[in-house]
Amino acid sequence: MNTACFTTSQRTSCLTMNPDLFKPCPEHGQVILPTKPNKTKSEQIKPDLAQVVTDSKTGKSYSKGKLLGKGGFARCYEMTDLSSNKMYAVKVIPQSRVSKPHQRDKITNEIELHKTLHHKHVVKFSHHFEDQDNIYIFLELCSRKSLAHIWKARHTLTDPEVRYYLRQIISGLKYLHNRGILHRDLKLGNFFVNENMELRLGDFGLAAKLETVEQRKKTICGTPNYLAPEVLNRQGHGTESDVWSLGCVMYTLMCGNPPFETLDLKETYKCIKEVKYNLPSTLSPAAQKLISGILQKDPSDRLTLDQILNHQFFTKAFTPDKLPPSSCVTVPELNPPSPAKRFFTKMAKSLFGKRKSKVEKNHCEERESISKLVSGIVKCSISRQMSYKTVCTDEAPPPTVGQQVSSGLLDTPAEEESRKSAASRSFKGTVASSTEPCEDGLTPASIAESAMKVLNSCLSAMPAATRNPPCLSRPKSFIWVTKWVDYSNKYGFGYQLSNQNIGVLFNEGTHLSLCDQRKTVHYCLTNNKHFTFQASALPEQLCSQKQIVELMANYMEQNLMEGGDLHCEDQPPSQPPLLLQWVKTDHALVMLFNNGTLQVNFYTDHTKIILCKSSDSYLLTYISRERVSYTYLLSMLSEMGCSAELRHRMRYVVQLLQHHGDS
C-alpha cells in the first residue's frame, strides 16, 4: 500500500479549509464541488417554517423547536406533538425541491423504505404528512446529535470508544444488508446518538436495494471522502462499498481526518482510486491491520462485517458496555475489567476447580483463598496477609494494546500541581518487604530515594535545551520489563523481562520466576530467602504458583506486544532481577527491582523511563511513543540538557518518588 499521498500539514489545512466535503451531494447520483447554490428570488423571500404545523388528516399540531441540521434537500427540526408533548426529529422537505417526478419518487422511495425498518441501531420512523409548502417526515429524536458533532468536539476518539460505536454501526448495517438494502452514504453525520448514548443509523436518502453486479446502477453518489474506488470507477455499489465507507469512518474517528482528504477534490478521488493514504504509527497494530483489511481496492479482498467483528481489534481488547454523556465533549474515564480477567478465570477453574463468585466473598475470604492456593509455601496468618497493601479491585488497569494515545501528557508546568494531586490520590500497589532489606541491603525505599536524588540533581543542573544529547550503547547486562499484566485482585503482578524471564510478585509477598527458557525456577520468600530449582524437580508445594506464572506468561505471549526495541543478549544463567514493589498512578506504572533498577511506564502513550546503575554511573533509557529506545549517561543529560518531552517525564518520576517517600 502506498501511503505517501499527502502531508500532515495538508491534512490539517483541510479540516478548516474544506469542511463542505462532508456534506451530502445535492442530487441523487451526482457529486459536485461544494459551493453555495444560487437562490432564486422567490426562495430568497420565502418565509421561515411556521412555528406550528398541523396534519390536516389527523388534526394533530406540532410546535417547531430548534434547527438540528440541514442538508442538500431538507432541514431537520426538533418538533413537539402538542397533544402528547412527545418530541421528534422532523425532516422538512420544501415542495419546491420535489417538483419534478424523479425528485418526488426519491422522497417517496426513502419514506417507503425507512418505514419498513425496525432495528435497535436504526433511527425509528414514526409517520409523515405534507401540506402545500413542505413534506414532514417524523423520526426518532436523538438528543446527543451525531458522531459528526462528537468528532468536531473531540477530533479523535479512544480505541474503546471506537469499538463501542463500530459494534453498533455494524449491527445496524448487517440488518440492512440482510434485508438487501445498501445505505450508500455512511458518514459521521448519519450516525445519530440518543439520550442513552446509543447509536442509530439514519438518513436513507441515498439508500437502494441491492442488485446483481450486472444490474447495479453506475451512478456516483455519496460523500466524496467516503466513496469506494469501484463507485468512482462507475462499477456500482455493493455491500463492500458500505464496508469501505465504514473503514473511512473508523479512520476518521481514530486519526482526526478522513483517510483520503486533500485540498483538491480531484486529488482526493485520485488517492481513493489508487488507495493512497497515511496510516499513522500512533495507531495500535490491531487498528492498523483492521483499517488496512477494510480499505482494499478490490471489493472481494475487503473484510466482511463478520470478519471485522472477529478481528483482534475487537476480540482482544476492551469494549465498554456504555459511554457517559460527557464523552461527547471530553475523553471519558472508562473502567475496563482486567484485560486478563476472563482468561484467568477460565484457566483457574480448570486448574483449581470452581470457586465462589466474587460477590459472595468478603475481603478476608478472598485473601484466604489466595492463602490456600499457596498452602505449604508460606504459612502465615490472615492478619499477616492483611498487613500487605493491595491494589484496589476497581482500579482500571493500564492499556495494553489498542488504547488511543492521549496527547499533551505532562506538557505544561501549570499541570504539575494537579498531577501531584492525582498521584496522591492514586498511590496504590502491592508491597513485598518494603522495609526488609534484600540480601544486598537494598529496599524499595532506598532504591526510590537514590533514584529521586540523582534525578533531582540532574534536573536542577540541567541547562535549557531543545534536543537530547547523543545516545550511548547499552550495557550487555541491561534488563527491563517488556510486558506486564495486573491480576492482583486474585493472584499478583506478572511481568516479562527483556531476557525472556517471567516473574510474578504474589499478593502475599512471595516471588516466583521462570528462567532459562522456563527450565529453572527461582523462588523468594517474604523474608528474602532465595531458592533455585529445576522445573522438572520442583517441590509439589510450589506447583500451584508455577502454574499461575505459566498462565500469566502464556497470556502475555498471546495478547501483548513488547514495549520497545530493546533486546537483551543471552547471558549466563544467574539469579534474575527481583521485583520488589510496583505502584500504579493515574498516568504511570512504577516498578522497583532488587538490582537498583527503576522503570516507569507511562501507559497513556507507551513511553518509558528506565534508570539503572552501570559501574559508578547512572544510565537513563527513554523509550519513545514509536517504541524506539535511547540510552544516555545521566551526567551527560545534566551537562547538556534534554528535550522537553524527556524532561517533563523525568519531573513526573521525581514527583512519584517524592510521594513514595512521604507515604
TrEMBL record:
Annotated InterPro entries: Kinase-like_dom_sf, POLO_box_1, POLO_box_2, POLO_box_dom, POLO_box_dom_sf, Prot_kinase_dom, Protein_kinase_ATP_BS, Ser/Thr_kinase_AS
EC number(s) from the headed UniProt entry: 2.7.11.21
Molecular-function GO terms, alphabetical: ATP binding; protein serine/threonine kinase activity
Top EC category: transferase
CDD domains xrefs: POLO_box_1 (cd13118), POLO_box_2 (cd13117)
Localization per Swiss-Prot or TrEMBL: Cytoplasm, Cytoskeleton, Microtubule organizing center, Centrosome; Nucleus, Nucleolus
Domain of life: Eukaryota
Binding site for ATP: K91
Region of interest: Disordered: 393-432
One GO location term (cellular component): kinetochore
All residue ranges annotated as the Protein kinase domain in the record: 62-314
Keywords associated with the record: ATP-binding, Cell cycle, Cytoplasm, Kinase, Nucleotide-binding, Nucleus, Repeat, Serine/threonine-protein kinase, Transferase
PANTHER family the record matches: SERINE/THREONINE-PROTEIN KINASE PLK, SERINE_THREONINE-PROTEIN KINASE PLK3
Protein name: Serine/threonine-protein kinase PLK
Organism, as annotated: Oncorhynchus mykiss (Rainbow trout)
Lineage: Eukaryota, Metazoa, Chordata, Craniata, Vertebrata
